[in-house]
Amino acid sequence: MVQIINGYAKPNDAASFNWDVGGVSRHAIGNYNFATDTGAQGAYTIFTVTGDVAVMVFGLCKTDLTSGGAATIQLGIAGNTAALIALTTATDLDQYETWQDATPEANPGEIDPGQFVIANGADVIMTIATADLTAGVIDFHAFWVPLSVNGNLVAA
């Protein structure tokens, strides 16, 4: 069997999925609005993953995050909720800042996100911890490639 990737026929096997044709990764954008999606403490799926993928992810704050308390957020997977982005004081994330670690980057934000392998379809989740958030919007950007035949990542 063959598959078409970026206009080229490729064998349909796991070896053909490494970083695509010419090393081009795929881009998915997830969005979370703490006023309309809910700012309540808990875990929320940002990206749905199937199979195995390699991913680099960061957040771009579109609207200041606000809270009545000392809210914290983190990004990861079930069982390791800070695996992708460390626990961060949510109100430290202001409009146009980049979130990739515990210290948001001012605009223009230099990004140096780590590369991670997510195996066995573990979804990417954002966890709101410590206190509820009342407002704010984050766009999450994932640059990813499949590592297995069924590897895929889409915004939830």
Characterise this structure.
With 156 residues, the protein is mainly beta. The chain has no helices and 12 strands. The strands form 3 sheets. Strands 3, 5, 8, 9 and 11 form a 5-stranded antiparallel beta sheet that branches. Strands 7-6-10-4-12 form a 5-stranded antiparallel beta sheet, with no helix packed on it. The protein starts with a strand and ends with a strand.
Topology (SSEs and partners):
Elements: E1 2-5, E2 8-11, E3 26-33, E4 42-50, E5 53-67, E6 72-77, E7 80-89, E8 98-99, E9 116-118, E10 124-129, E11 133-146, E12 152-155
Low-confidence stretches: 12-22
Q: Report the CATH topology name.
A: Jelly Rolls
Helical coverage, percent range: under 10%
**What distance separates the N and C termini?**
30 Å
Any idea what the CATH architecture is? Sandwich
Quick take:
With 156 residues, the protein is mostly beta strands. The protein contains no helices and twelve strands.
Which short descriptors sum up this protein?
mainly beta, 156 residues, 12 strands, Jelly Rolls
